[in-house]
Amino acid sequence: MTWTPLQNIARRMLVCVSVATLCCFAAISVRAEIRIGVAGPLSGQFEAFGRDIVLGAEQAAAAINKAGGIDGEPIRIVAEDDACTEDGGRDAANRLIGARVSAVIGHVCWRASVAGSALYHANDIVQISPATRYAKFTDERPDPSGGTYRLIGRADEQARFLARLLLARHAGLRIGIAHDNSPYGKGLATEVENDLTATGDRPVIVLEYEPGKDEYRALVSRLNDAGAEILFLGGYFGDAAVIVRDMRARGMTVPLIGADALGSSEFWVIAGEAGNGTVFSAPIDPRRFETARAVVPLLARDNQPAQPYSLYAYAALQVLAEALRMADASTKAELDPLLNGTTFDTVLGNVRFDSNGDAEIPSYSAFEWRDGEVVRLEE
Q1: For residue 1, is pLDDT > 90?
Q2: What is the CATH number of domain 34-154+287-362?
Q3: Which of 12, 89, 183, 253 has its CA 20 to 30 A from that of 75?
């Protein structure tokens, strides 16, 4: 068929109109979104912690989206597994950068968190950790003026709390210290030792033990020979349970004090009645906050009640969403002045970051094991 010049013009106009119409429909159907990365261990030993922060971020995103998103744009959570390792942290960070996220909530484990922070900084992305307590995470952040923030209490803050707890509850007793030489255990033990020594209460003995053993009778004997009347332990629940069990079997009534790893239900499963009276510090439970009451029922997972890390992640997204609403762009340069100078209304209450990137919120409480139940102690 031969087209006349007039028919050719009409045909071209029809094609242009059709293409424009399709483009219009495509623009309507593809809605803009704000991507927020969440990085944590989604496999391996610490998978539960990663799942908790993903859940918290997802529930916060759902609430924000229901209220209209950020200036009409919905939030989409992009979760990546960092396997709780340094290499995993870098890999997860690179994947989130490739996904063009506006900010990151994460990580949990300090090696992954520190590894990721350098990459986020290089790519102009703000990071808020809901779980990393390692002091140097913010003390040595890539940009001293911002970019890297945390909501949970610092590890050295916990050590100072524990040292005060030891002196307040057991004044005048001879203190022994034992640790498993892990970054977590040794780090806490060293900080506690330093804080005690600074007050003139130098420990009578400091011991290192190999984690994962079935018995610690030799360690218990050395503590007994040194005359230790109380033991601070830097380590995890399994070893702590075996050590306190071995102390009681020997007839030692030495109280045991540790950090939040001793709060695991598995501690009581292993220690049994020998665990009675064991005291540990842990981050203040945000589930008790009035500001979190309405959200807590939404954060149950796998027939388990809401976990604290979920609330910290929920609050992290609340902070980021409010900062993004106030900012002209999602870049670190735009967000830092807001994160450094604003008080945010969150499920944790009012949150404000200090000049170091640490949240100025209450951090730690003391708890005691009593007949298989954890009881909060009055400070």
Answers
A1: no
A2: 3.40.50.2300
A3: 89
